[in-house]
Amino acid sequence: MGVEVLGLWSPNPAVQFNRPPFLHLSPPTRAALVTSASLSSPPPTIQIVGGRSTPSWQGSGNDVYGGEADWIDFETDLYHWTKPLRPVQWYPGHIAKTERELKEQIKLMDVVIEVRDARIPLSTTHPQMDVWLGNRKRILVLNREDMISKADRNAWASYFARQGIKVVFSNGRLGMGTMKLSRFAKSLVASVNVKRRDKGLLSRPVRAGIVGYPNVGKSSLINRLLKRRMCPAAPRPGVTRELRWVRFGNELELLDSPGIIPMRISDQTAAIKLAICDDIGERSYDVTDVAAILVQILTKLPTVGAKALNKRYKIDADEFCGKIYIQKLSVHLFNGDTHQAAFRILSDFRKGKFGWAALERPPS
Questions:
Q1: Fewest CB atoms within 10 Å of the CB: 18, 101, 286, 297?
Q2: How far apart (Å, rounded) are the C-alpha atoms in residues 18 and 12?
Q3: Which keywords does this Swiss-Prot/TrEMBL entry list (predicted)?
């Protein structure tokens, strides 16, 4: 809520905000802003309970997010930026059917390969995933590793290693990481069939399911593993619409599944990240609003900064908030079409034109 002036949202102390029922609004503390996550509990997300006394959109954009405290401020800023926007919700009809079928197929799986977006690993895991998997073996794949820095990869590897989870960083588009994933899968094949032989049973192909959010690269990963195009893949959510088993050699069967997301996304900061990273359908959000928030994020990321926007579009971003920047870009390149300007910024980010740009860091 706020007063809109020239496309900018500024706080208005006279306006009383209606607090969403899912938010726990208590006096903000450092401990409350960081939640330690565990993959044996509901999805690890950062709970926002307050904000800074001076919201960053009022500043000149000189502050950047670097250390742990700065990333807490990033989540706080993102909460304030998303609060006035229309909630992002996307749940196509085929996902409900897929979810029912997938829960039945998981019972037949020996191992589950969960694929997440390396830029937002916490936001791209289903809240019920741990319940569905139970005690089954899991391999976690963080796809699009080329879009985050080495420091971010090391931080996430350490975070998941402390929880005993095997992590593979991959680039499904170029095939990086598929050899390591193949070795992990084959090692699990051997262990499963050793147990079967000990019980007097014949060896069989091990069944592995590849699951995850829409457009995180599941089908591309399977195609790279098989070294041929067996599953339809495209850089947009909702391409895969049915479950399909494919054979990987004589030892492994892979299940390609459509992306699954919760019926309702209560964490709207996570929803905005999904929209920015193209992990949710475009019809669920306003492109201009999401691109405006992305501009404000990029100006404060130490790996990007306002200089990267200036270099790419020849427009200074130091003193402008996101919506004004998009308006200026639309005049500069698109004859005043703000939708095209917003889409260009989002498309450039998704293609890695701004370099390394992780939108999440591991909780402490």
A1: 18
A2: 13
A3: GTP-binding, Nucleotide-binding
Report the candidate in 261, 257, 320 with the shortest Cα–Cα distance to residue 292: 320
* Bridge pairing between strands 8-10 and 111-117: unpaired
Instruction: Identify the CA nearest to 265 among candidates 120, 152, 156, 112.
Output: 120
Cα–Cα distance between 83 and 272 in angstroms, integer?
A: 11
Structure tokens at 130: 């741990």
Q: Which amino acid, 146?
A: D
Q: Which amino acid is at 235?
A: P
Element housing 170 (H / E) = strand 166-170
Pick from 50, 58, 43: nearest CA to 2? 58
The phi-psi region of residue 7 (left if phi > 0; otherwise alpha if psi is between -120 and 50; otherwise beta) is left
CA–CA distances in Å: residue 129 to residues 169, 184, 217, 356: 20, 21, 18, 28
Are 176 and 149 within 8 A, CB to CB?
A: no
Mean pLDDT of 226-252: 61
124, with CB counted inside 10 A (0-12, 13-18, 19+), is buried
Residue-wise pLDDT for 167-196, tens only, equals 999 987 777 888 888 788 777 767 777 888
Residue 310 near residue 317, CB atoms below 8 Å: yes
> Quick one: pLDDT at residue 74?
83
Count the neighbouring beta carbons within 10 Å of the beta carbon of residue 201.
Answer: 10
User: How far apart, in Å, are the Cα atoms of 75 and each of 45, 59, 92, 118, 304?
Assistant: 10, 16, 28, 17, 17
> Interior CA angle at 132 toward 159 and 244, to 5°?
105
Tokens (6 digits) for 3:
């007063």
Q: Of all helices (H) and strands (E), which one includes residue 207?
A: strand 206-212
How far is Cα 256 from Cα 245, in angstroms, rounded to an integer? 6
* Residues 324 and 6 sit within 8 Å (Cβ to Cβ): yes
Q: How far, in Å, CA of 41 to CA of 2, rounded? A: 36
